[in-house]
Amino acid sequence: MSDSYHVHETDSEESGAGDGETDAEGTGSAVDERIEDREDSSVTPSDDEDLTPSIQEVPDSRAVIRAEELSVHYGEEEALQPVTMGIPEREVTAIIGPSGCGKSTFLRCINRMNDMIDAARVEGSLRFRGKDVYDEDVDPVALRRRIGIVFQKPNPFPKSIRENVAYGLNIQGYDGDVDARVEEALRNAALWDEVKDQLDSSGLDLSGGQQQRLCIARAIAPDPEVVLMDEPASALDPVATAKVEDLIADLSEQYTVIIVTHNMQQAARISDKTAVFLTGGQLVEFGDTNRIFENPENQRVEDYITGKFG
Ligand SMILES: Nc1ncnc2c1ncn2[C@@H]1O[C@H](COP(=O)(O)OP(=O)(O)O)[C@@H](O)[C@H]1O
Ligand SMILES: [Mg+2]
């Protein structure tokens, strides 16, 4: 039962969750009080209670993505234990958990980015608007137009700002007004005012934070329905991070956003729903973000959120 705690070593790079003292304070006194209650009453949860995942149901009418017994192996290693959950439309869902717990693996299942990893074997089902994205007749390139992705490290192409944003439109043979779409995407990515006079200069000349917003503009220009983000702010300074966080909140008016972060404060600030994965690749709790941070049902989630490990 407790093996999973031992294999986890705190990675200094991921210390957003590693500083137990700070995190425990940051989560507020309600959690601290409940912890004291539990210690006072000297009730320890049974193993069963400890291991039972708590997954909020999302009705079909609201779920744009539904995983059912979705699991991933890399060779012999199980990176993601069977996950069953729905992801609600036009909300921000945060995926949190310690390093190596399968967050990126899960995210990559959604738009079939794991296809590019030879060792990866995906089982179970992942449905997008009712259709299993792993069905033989699904074209992964077409799928990725509807489910865009933004990575941790800003990765603009060595092309002009305009060409970066227009990239997906050109691939899909968009025959409308490309410049208008470029402008719209840059506006939605909160970058237009900063770059409107330099659209033909290289995307690589922008600052890191601007580059990441450029990548977000590139991801949303083809008008996807879902935007996946894998730690999109963890390579950015605090000011750029705040801009990207504001932007994510705005994006959820139009798109379903699924964001991986190991920064719990960030998840608490920007998401509507939170999914907590723990070591061993298990989805342990999923539900409304406020409820998860204030009153997690699962003891291991509480331990993680209050900084006892992670
Ligand atoms: N391309 C890969 N090949 C083999 N193993 C991998 C690969 N990517 C990830 N893994 C393994 O799968 C597990 C989950 O990794 P990952 O999804 O990257 O976790 P996270 O994003 O939560 O840090 C880890 O044990 C990791 O070493
Ligand atoms: Mg990752």
TrEMBL record:
InterPro entries: AAA+_ATPase, ABC_transporter-like_ATP-bd, ABC_transporter-like_CS, P-loop_NTPase, PstB-like
Record domain ABC transporter: where: 65-305
Biased composition, class Basic and acidic residues, residue ranges: 1-10, 31-41
A Pfam family: ABC_tran
SUPFAM superfamilies hit by this protein: P-loop containing nucleoside triphosphate hydrolases
PROSITE patterns xrefs: ABC_TRANSPORTER_1 (PS00211), ABC_TRANSPORTER_2 (PS50893)
Composition skew (Acidic residues), residue ranges: 11-24
Keyword line: ATP-binding, Cell membrane, Membrane, Nucleotide-binding, Transport
CDD domains: ABC_PstB_phosphate_transporter
Stretches the record annotates as Disordered: 1-61
GO molecular function terms attached to this record: ATP binding
Domain of life of the native organism: Archaea
Name by which UniProt lists this protein: Phosphate ABC transporter ATP-binding protein PstB
Source organism: Halopenitus salinus
